[in-house]
Amino acid sequence: TKKIAIIKEIRNAVPGLNLVQAKKFVETAPVNVKEDLGKAEAEELKAVLEKAGAVIEIV
Question: Signal peptide position in this chain (predicted)?
Fold first, then answer.
Protein backbone atom coordinates (compact mmCIF):
# COMPACT_ATOMS: atom_id res chain seq x y z
CA THR A 1 0.00 0.00 0.00
CA LYS A 2 2.97 2.31 0.55
CA LYS A 3 4.99 1.02 -2.37
CA ILE A 4 5.76 4.46 -3.82
CA ALA A 5 7.31 5.69 -0.58
CA ILE A 6 9.34 2.50 -0.24
CA ILE A 7 10.56 2.77 -3.84
CA LYS A 8 11.75 6.33 -3.16
CA GLU A 9 13.64 5.25 -0.05
CA ILE A 10 15.24 2.29 -1.85
CA ARG A 11 16.45 4.69 -4.57
CA ASN A 12 18.03 6.83 -1.84
CA ALA A 13 19.57 3.84 -0.06
CA VAL A 14 20.98 2.03 -3.08
CA PRO A 15 23.00 4.35 -5.30
CA GLY A 16 22.75 3.85 -9.05
CA LEU A 17 19.19 2.50 -9.18
CA ASN A 18 16.80 4.17 -11.56
CA LEU A 19 13.05 4.25 -10.97
CA VAL A 20 12.32 1.05 -12.92
CA GLN A 21 15.10 -0.87 -11.16
CA ALA A 22 13.93 0.34 -7.73
CA LYS A 23 10.34 -0.70 -8.52
CA LYS A 24 11.46 -4.20 -9.54
CA PHE A 25 13.66 -4.38 -6.44
CA VAL A 26 10.69 -3.62 -4.18
CA GLU A 27 8.34 -5.98 -6.04
CA THR A 28 10.72 -8.94 -5.69
CA ALA A 29 10.81 -8.67 -1.89
CA PRO A 30 12.09 -10.27 0.30
CA VAL A 31 15.56 -9.14 -0.83
CA ASN A 32 18.79 -8.00 0.77
CA VAL A 33 18.95 -4.23 0.58
CA LYS A 34 22.58 -3.90 1.69
CA GLU A 35 25.17 -6.23 3.13
CA ASP A 36 28.15 -5.79 5.45
CA LEU A 37 26.82 -2.71 7.24
CA GLY A 38 27.72 -1.62 10.72
CA LYS A 39 25.03 -2.02 13.36
CA ALA A 40 24.35 1.72 13.57
CA GLU A 41 24.05 2.12 9.80
CA ALA A 42 21.81 -0.97 9.55
CA GLU A 43 19.51 0.34 12.29
CA GLU A 44 19.33 3.74 10.59
CA LEU A 45 18.42 2.17 7.24
CA LYS A 46 15.86 -0.05 8.96
CA ALA A 47 14.22 2.96 10.62
CA VAL A 48 13.99 4.89 7.34
CA LEU A 49 12.48 1.98 5.42
CA GLU A 50 10.05 1.05 8.21
CA LYS A 51 8.89 4.68 8.35
CA ALA A 52 8.09 4.37 4.62
CA GLY A 53 6.04 1.23 5.33
CA ALA A 54 8.47 -1.62 4.69
CA VAL A 55 8.94 -4.64 6.94
CA ILE A 56 12.65 -5.06 7.70
CA GLU A 57 14.66 -7.84 9.29
CA ILE A 58 18.32 -7.40 10.13
CA VAL A 59 20.27 -10.65 9.98
Answer: none
